[in-house]
Amino acid sequence: MTDGARLGKADQVYVQLRAEIVSGVLAPGRTLPETELVAYTGASRTPVREAVRRLAAEGLIDLEPRRAPMVSRISLRSARQLFEFRQVLEPVAISMVATREVGAGDLRQAIETLLSTFGRLKGQEYSPAFQEAFTAATGQFDALLADHAPNEYLSRSILELRPHSARLRHIAHADTSRLQESIGEHIRMCQAVLDGQAEEAAAAMVEHLQHVASSIFRRLLDSNTELLVQ
Q1: Selection from 74-83, 92-101, 183-192 with the highest mean pLDDT
Q2: Around 188, how many Cα atoms within 13 Å sit in the side-chain half-sphere?
Q3: What is the DSSP string of the chain?
């Protein structure tokens, strides 16, 4: 049975729209009239409305009276607040993961696989295939951190931020000149976790988040990205 067959229609619409908002296919500021969403998703009005309500609750869609739903814009203020929160959560999370006994289990294997992936990407020339592989690897790294943080509340907080972090990641990755630097930062973080160096892992995470935030804010201030700024 396929994933689509297991999901209800409203769930399918939600998963589709959420993925396309997070990836930037549905761009910030785009209006989503109900009739358009019905045609776009092939679903009826009821599941479309339910999916839109769920996405609005997550802050990915803005709902206002007598207006069509709109993909939420990304403001400098919201981006800054997101990174302020991430800079509190994620260095603690990676420090706790590095403190754990990684051993020879699934966690070590997953980190070693990511380390190998980043190692292969290091030094490669930019291409769409490179971008796709890099984006997938960084997403897997973030998921691994959230999944293995040994604190339920910390893990939940990171997971709730993931769609918003992913939207900003696509802005940061548009600065292709920084991708190799980011690969080096991820290699450093992966190696610190494997070596059980909690302080080194946390320091590497702080440095990485600072660099990502700077890249995103430069892009948001660019005249070509006015649509993203409220």
Answers
A1: 183-192
A2: 16
A3: --HHHHS-HHHHHHHHHHHHHHHTSS-TT-B--HHHHHHHH---HHHHHHHHHHHHHTTSEE--TTS--EEPP--HHHHHHHHHHHHHHHHHHHHHHHHS--TTSHHHHHHHHHHHHHHHHTTPPP-HHHHHHHHHHHHHHHHHHHHH-S-HHHHHHHHHHHHHHHHHHHHHHT-GGGHHHHHHHHHHHHHHHHTT-HHHHHHHHHHHHHHHHHHHHHHHHSGGGGGG--
The one-letter code for the residue type at 29 is: G
Give the model confidence (pLDDT) of 49-80 as tens digits. 999 999 999 999 999 998 999 999 888 888 88
Task: Please give the angle made by the CA atoms of 145, 146 and 152, to the nearest 5 degrees.
Answer: 130
pLDDT score for 227? 45
